[in-house]
Specification:
The structure holds 2 protein chains of 2 kinds.
Chain A lengths: L2 H60 L4 H9 L17 H26 L5 H25 L9 H7 L7 H23 L5 H24 L5 H4 L13
Chain B lengths: L19 H21 L27 H25 L4 H27 L10 H16 L17 H23 L6 H25 L7 H6 L30 E2 L8 E2 L12 E9 L2 E7 L16
Antiparallel strand pairs in B: 1-2, 3-4
Helix pairs in contact in B: 2-3, 2-4, 2-5, 3-6, 5-6
Classes of the chains: A mainly alpha, B mainly alpha.
Chain lengths: ~240, ~325
């Protein structure tokens, strides 16, 4: 190796060392640039996660409501407190008291119709109607039991049964007239109950019952020989007070 | 000889021939700078993007918010539509004097319901609705009218629509179907209201409509007291005296064993639709089936009348009838 070659080699090593330092600088600069560019992104992710969490909690709080609640939740995503007005689906404690009372009425009605059926005063289509109406009241009681579970009394109101049983022991026309009055009173009572129930499930169930009880009242008016349209459509029932239990 | 000239200066890349490492360096630096620039850029979009020619601005649809007032307005509109249907029955049905008296009573009852529901609309914070439901009149009443009066074929229809063989029968069926629908509508609105007080109001009107439908079913056929399916569920140990008609829809929340009942039984070919005073054990929310018009090879024309839903609600932004 002569001096010239040595000088060239030395210069080449020096340039190689300089290049290594430059490469490190490049890597450090690239990493710093990447980290800096990721900062806003990561910050955005963090705030998006918190926003998502608050939206989810808003949706959950309104999930028990009906369609009205759904629209409320959609328009008030950033004001979660307003969604608390959505009605609950399940019966509240006060609802259970009302539904318990309604079930005792339904079982009382079934027992009263059974008194009439035992006396065999009906025949043909009217017998079919009375039997079907009796079965319907039992079905209503069972549906209420399914809704409120172990709180259901599954027993009739004995005092109401004792008060009305005699009127269900007469002729077919007398029984039909008494049954019509009972159905009209049940309609008035259940409409009153729907106006008090807070839970949506209980309201929907009693509503499905009461529209048929109204029909049953009109059928019983027809069986009782009431021909006038106004009398058949009369809504002269009185709500049965729960204190009479 | 190596491909990359390690002796080159970093900032002298442009002076060297392209190498793999050089390209990687430039590419990495470019991506990092681009990411930094994109992250720091403003997120505001261009409000007036470039375009060619004139363009009509896209219409902005109003937001339909479902409130208690909207539900009351919708119920009001449906009672107006029921009155329209009753008037149509009087006009086309060749009703007897007794039948006309019944329908007039029903019109009066619906007017009373409208008055009450309008007052509740205001209490719920909405403006009272003062005319019929436009969708109901367009989608339901027009076809009903056509099937009673008859009309020439339209569009892809192969034959003319024949006039009804018994307009009186069809007119009474329309009145019955509309009162049944009103009862179902009020029942369907109950779980949609937010306040128990409002639910009590509408179900009261629902029971009154149910009574009217029942009374009319007895006028049409006094023997059809209860639906035969209900009889089967009642476990009667005696022969039935009512005629069972074919059912085509099922919805009854309490009768899974028998598959449920229908509010009205759709007839098959040659059968006339049967209406029952007590059509089911629970009030149903299924479509009210109305069979009307002249009998064809497959029986009468059947139209399903649904209770109001999102596309037929009368929202607060709807201000004109």
């Amino acid at each position: 190796m002569d001096n010239n070659e040595a000088a060239q080699l030395g210069a080449a090593e020096q340039r190689a060392d300089d290049h290594t330092v430059a490469s490190r600088r490049l890597l450090v600069a690239g990493a710093a640039g990447a980290a800096a560019s990721l900062l806003p992104f990561l910050g955005g992710r963090a705030s998006a996660a918190s926003a998502s969490a608050s939206t989810d909690s808003t949706t959950d709080s309104s999930a028990t409501g009906g369609s009205t609640a759904g629209s409320t939740a959609g328009s008030t995503a950033d004001t979660a407190a307003t969604t608390t007005t959505a009605p609950p689906k399940r019966p509240t404690d006060d609802d259970i008291s009302l539904l318990t009372f309604a079930q005792t009425l339904e079982l009382t009605a079934r027992d009263l119709y059974d008194v009439a059926l035992d006396n065999s005063v009906f025949s043909g289509p009217t017998l079919e109607a009375i039997k079907t109406i009796s079965e319907s009241h039992e079905a209503y009681a069972q549906a209420i039991s399914g809704l409120i579970g172990r709180d259901a009394p599954n027993a009739p109101k004995t005092d109401l049964f004792d008060e009305l049983s005699e009127s269900f022991s007469g002729s077919a026309a007398d029984v039909a007239a008494a049954a019509r009055t009972l159905e009209n009173n049940l309609v008035a009572t259940h409409v009153d109950i729907v106006g008090q129930l807070v839970g949506v499930d209980g309201s929907a169930l009693v509503a499905a019952m009461v529209v048929i009880e109204a029909r049953q009242a009109t059928v019983l008016a027809h069986i009782a020989g009431v021909d006038g349209l106004d009398e058949q459509l009369a809504t002269d029932g009185e709500a049965i007070p729960s204190s009479a239990a | 000889m190596q491909n990359d000239d390690t002796t080159s200066d970093l900032w002298g890349l442009g002076e060297q021939s392209a190498s793999r490492r050089g390209i990687l360096r430039i590419g990495g630096l470019t991506v990092a700078i681009a990411a930094l620039a994109a992250a720091c850029a403003s997120e505001d979009g261009d409000a007036n993007p470039a375009r060619v020619g004139e363009l009509t601005p896209a219409p902005t649809l109003p937001e339909g918010v479902l409130t208690d007032g909207v539900l009351f307005r919708t119920a009001t509109s449906m009672h107006y539509s029921v009155i329209d249907a009753h008037e149509l029955a009087k006009k086309l049905g060749k009703l007897t004097a007794a039948q006309t008296a019944i329908v007039d009573d029903y019109i009066k009852a619906n007017q009373d319901a409208i008055e009450d529901l309008q007052s509740w609309s205001e209490k719920a914070g909405s403006k009272p609705w003062t005319c019929a439901n436009p969708r109901f009149d367009r989608v339901i009443l027009k076809p009903i009218s056509d099937r009673i009066t008859g009309r020439p074929k339209e569009g892809t229809e192969e034959t003319d629509v024949l006039p009804s063989d018994d307009p009186n029968r069809d007119a009474m069926a329309v009145v019955h179907a509309c009162e049944t629908l009103a009862a179902a509508m009020h029942q369907s609105l109950v779980p949609q209201f937010s306040k128990p007080e409002y639910r009590g109001v509408v179900i009261g009107h629902g029971t009154e409509a149910a009574r009217r439908a029942t009374a009319l079913a007895l006028v049409i056929n006094a023997d059809n007291l209860v639906n035969p399916t209900n009889l089967a569920n009642a476990n009667l140990d005696l022969p039935t005296t009512t005629t069972e008609a074919a059912t085509t829809t099922t919805q009854n929340i309490a009768q899974s064993e028998k598959g449920g009942t229908t509010t009205t039984a759709a007839p098959t070919a040659g059968q006339i639709q049967q209406y029952y005073a007590v059509p089911s054990q629970f009030g149903t929310l299924s479509a009210v089936q109305l069979a009307i018009g002249a009998f064809g090879a497959s029986g009468q024309f059947i139209i399903n009348i649904e209770t109001p839903s999102l596309n037929s609600f009368i929202y607060d932004y709807q201000t004109e009838c």
